[in-house]
């Protein structure tokens, strides 16, 4: 490690390792198979570049990002490190020069695009060269269920077996499913030494609120941060336009942005956001890939994101400069219904849909969290941490109560009406409201009729929302959002398990608007 520390400053010009880097560098240098999960910008490249210099022979780096490979080769060459790249963008001369340097034993790092692995020529070339390590960047590209699947990544496992050298895989995608797939496909199922570090973004304050009066909530949040650059993410294109309008009327400079816009106006918004101070962009998730503004001071979600990964990525755009940044995510039963039906109605195979429901559940669990939100978020990514003192739940610990009885009443209303109705009708039954619909169905005769009068309508809405958040009930897209019980609910109904609910959500719901009785 002495050598590594010296190279860190002499070659890379850094005074110290970032969190996590030293351990990874040590394991990779020692030739152990490793899987390192670090967020984007966490400093992954150093974790294979430095070991490449410490080890004899050549390190092959597989990466799907041609521009990034070229940047790294250029930066390494400037630092006096012999590096070359084989990509489809090469001229014949460039390729020949790389081959010559490789054969002459002059290269330390050889970057390769995955397509290159498909040619038998390249495989032969590698088997004759003194390769001592394979580094795989963006290792999640090996996952067939991910958005970035690269079929050629499936050849990497074969290459590792043929060369019989250690492999170090890197990715920013932390979910357990993708990790397992990486282990299967790159390491033949033999668990590598795994590192997971640096997912915390301590300068970002985390907060969720149930949607009570969503537009008001966003306007208030923006008003408290007037003059600061921020992003509001919306679930639909139409909403980006109306909400941007509302923000302008409230005196903020605000633009909308979505995938349905022409390229020119889109680029204009991106450029203005980059250039101006204090612009608010109200956008769909289409806004983000190209956004590289370090001083975004806040991110708000007017609608619930689609998964916990999407949430993390979207709030992560705030505060890249390390200065304090704030976030607010709104959520309500409509969001849950929409996200569930988007998954169910999609074209993905059934296993994929189950995984997507699980990712959404993780986000709902975060929304309904009862302890430190950051701890809940980081534990999803596999990182242990202490209560952060910098989230809404640490600021104001929620009051909890035993909600078993209330949940059981809600579930029995669902069950006795054949899992055929949405929350509105169920709440009427629980409150004993003999509406036309209730009478038409004869529901005023049910044993559940009027058993829930200890709560009012808004409180019941909060209870049903928490039931959805805990995945006890799911809206059925085939029946206009009729609530159906999940397996987990049956244990509660049978009295085998109890459940804790947050009272603050119920209080907030009540104080938001006087209840019409
Ligand atoms: P990613 O994990 O997204 O691949 P990079 O490897 O590109 O991230 O690193 C992100 C940035 O952090 C780069 O600008 C890099 O120079 C810088 N960096 C990496 N390690 C250190 C370090 N130990 N000290 C200071 N800066 C570092
Ligand atoms: Zn906290």
UniProtKB/TrEMBL annotation:
Residues in Helicase C-terminal domain copies: 214-364
Domain of life: Bacteria
Domain Rhodanese, first and last residues per copy: 216-263
Reaction(s) the record says it catalyses: Couples ATP hydrolysis with the unwinding of duplex DNA by translocating in the 3'-5' direction
Domain Helicase ATP-binding as annotated: residue spans: 25-192
Molecular function via GO: 3'-5' DNA helicase activity; ATP binding; DNA binding; four-way junction helicase activity; hydrolase activity; metal ion binding
GO CC terms of this entry: bacterial nucleoid; cytoplasm; replisome
GO biological process terms, semicolon-separated: DNA recombination; DNA repair; DNA replication; SOS response
Keywords carried by this UniProt record: ATP-binding, DNA damage, DNA recombination, DNA repair, DNA-binding, Helicase, Hydrolase, Isomerase, Metal-binding, Nucleotide-binding, Zinc
Cofactor: Zn(2+); Mg(2+)
EC number: 5.6.2.4
Keyword Membrane: no
Record family assignment: Belongs to the helicase family. RecQ subfamily.
Official protein name in the record: DNA helicase RecQ
Organism field: Actibacterium mucosum KCTC 23349
Residues of the full protein shown: 1 to 517 of 682
